[in-house]
Design brief:
This protein is of the alpha/beta class and 303 residues long. 34% of the residues lie in helices and 16% in strands. It has a single domain, classed as Arginase, Chain A (3-Layer(aba) Sandwich). The model has no long low-confidence stretch (mean pLDDT 94).
Length: 303
């Protein structure tokens, strides 16, 4: 049995399409707490974090929107209540990871451990505040959390994750600037071309082996658009050619078997774009796999 704490981060300001702020409620409605309890885990739901209200910091990139609100989320995360068990963060657009990853890195440091991050996403989210053309700050959290430059308008990081301790799996929409920055930083990348050629098991096992040797806590940041939009349509930035249902479940099953995962993001679910709650249910099912649900536990749904 695992002690699991749920905490919602209804972040909507990092995205360009409204709706992600309703993600935590949708995940709860889709049955996430019950699914985890049915697996025998002790689940505590602490409700939702609220951002601190501040004025917008100045920044020369006129494309950026909601900078003040995003800063407010970062400020709130620095005062996030301590979670001693396994943390499951319910989002919220992927800017939430700028809050959760540093918080989990700080927790790991308090335990005398590094934090290793498995980033499951169609996008690398490796822009800084000056390089984003869209102005959507959900394209920046991985760069911020790994201590990259270009974030003078954000609160300074207490604990950054070493870029080489990050594996990005499933990428398929990365622009030239991000590609260069990823290479310079030393982030490990296994894009969908590599998944097509080699599968998902080998890179995930290698990631987990490195984490085990380092005695690391493992944080999993799952953006719903890691999945192919044919099975998970409720995202504002759909990119064809994503992970299949079985590939995604295999990743989660390998993570569960490792026993190393200490925290999880469920990000970018936009209920406004969902089909009768379909994507929310897929996200809940994947989370359940990470916490021990197996193929033999699944029943065929009546249509």
């Amino acid at each position: 049995m695992t002690d699991i704490t749920l905490l919602g981060l209804p972040v909507g300001e990092g995205a360009g399409i409204a709706g992600c702020a309703m993600g935590p409620a949708a995940l709860r409605t889709a049955g996430l707490p019950r699914a985890l309890r049915d697996l025998g885990h002790a689940v505590t739901d602490r409700g939702d974090l609220a951002p601190v209200s501040i004025g917008a910091p100045a920044h020369p990139n006129a494309a950026i929107h909601d900078l003040g609100a995003c800063f407010g989320w970062l400020d709130a995360a620095r005062a996030m209540p301590r979670i001693d068990g396994t943390a499951v963060f319910l989002g919220g657009d992927h800017f939430m990871a700028a809050c959760t990853v540093p918080a989990m890195a700080a927790r790991a440091a308090d335990r005398g451990r590094p934090l290793h991050v498995l980033w499951l996403d169609a996008h690398s989210d490796f822009h800084d505040l000056g390089s984003t053309d869209s102005g959507n700050l959900h394209g920046t959290p991985a760069a911020y959390a790994t201590g990259q430059s270009g974030f003078d308008a954000f609160p300074p990081l207490g604990h950054a994750v070493a870029p080489e301790d990050v594996l990005m799996l499933g990428l398929r929409s990365v622009d030239a600037q991000e590609r260069t920055r990823l290479g310079q930083a030393g982030v490990r990348v296994h894009d969908m071309r590599a998944v097509d050629e080699d599968g998902v098991a080998a890179p995930v096992r290698a990631f987990l082996d490195r984490a085990a040797r380092a005695g690391a806590d493992v944080h999993v940041s799952l953006d719903v658009d890691f999945l192919d939009p044919a099975i998970a349509p409720a995202v504002g930035t759909t990119v064809p050619g994503g992970a299949t249902f079985r590939e995604a479940h295999l990743v989660m099953e390998l993570l569960h078997e490792s026993g190393l995962v200490t925290s999880l993001d469920l990000a970018e679910l936009n209920p406004m774009l969902d089909e009768h709650g379909r994507t929310a249910r897929v996200a809940v099912d994947l989370a359940a796999s990470l916490f021990g649900k197996t193929v033999l536990d699944r029943q065929t749904r009546r249509i």
